[in-house]
Amino acid sequence: MAVDSGFPRSPRGAIKLARALVAGVAFICFAASSAPGAYTSLAVMEVAITGLFFLLYLLKLDQRLSWLFWPLADVFNSVIAAAFLLIVCLFAVILKTNNGTLAGGVFGLVLLVLCVVDAVLLSRKISIDGPRGTNAPAK
């Protein structure tokens, strides 16, 4: 199986790693504070889905599984995640039942910014009228 060793050092790879790490920190904050399930489940889902997209690009599976336009699916994931994070993390910050929930909400808002940056980088890569070439990093 081919591995794209340059992907983790690319801007998109770095954003994916940062998203997974920040979502993990938000999960730890929410879990330690015994926050409601919506907070922790959103953070866990973000870690899992971002990790799967990272592995997809790292192992070049997007080229082998060409039946789906993966960059567009990744943009949809980033936009939907940003919408959910905006709602849930604003509730966490506004309600701030304890300091852990407040910290998790702040990390969630940082994660929201990373999702938007990821969506912008990916949308710059997508060309609707061009051929579906390799998965080169956005410039």
Oligomer category: single chain
Distance between the termini: 26 Å
Q: How many strands, what sense, and barrel or not for the largest sheet? A: none
Helix content: over 70%
**Order of SSEs:** HHHHH
Extended strand count? 0
Textual characterization of the structure:
This protein has 139 residues and is an all-alpha fold. Helices cover 73% and strands 0% of the residues. α1 (11-32) packs antiparallel against α2 (37-58) and α1 (11-32) runs antiparallel to α5. It starts with 10 loop residues before the first helix and ends in a 14-residue tail after the last helix.
Strands, helices and their partners?
Blueprint: H1 11-32, H2 37-58, H3 61-64, H4 70-95, H5 99-125
Helix pairs in contact: 1-2, 1-5, 2-4, 4-5
Care to give the gist of this entry?
The protein contains 5 helices and no strands. The chain is mainly α and 139 residues long.
Feature tags:
elongated; 0% strand; mainly alpha; 139 residues; single chain
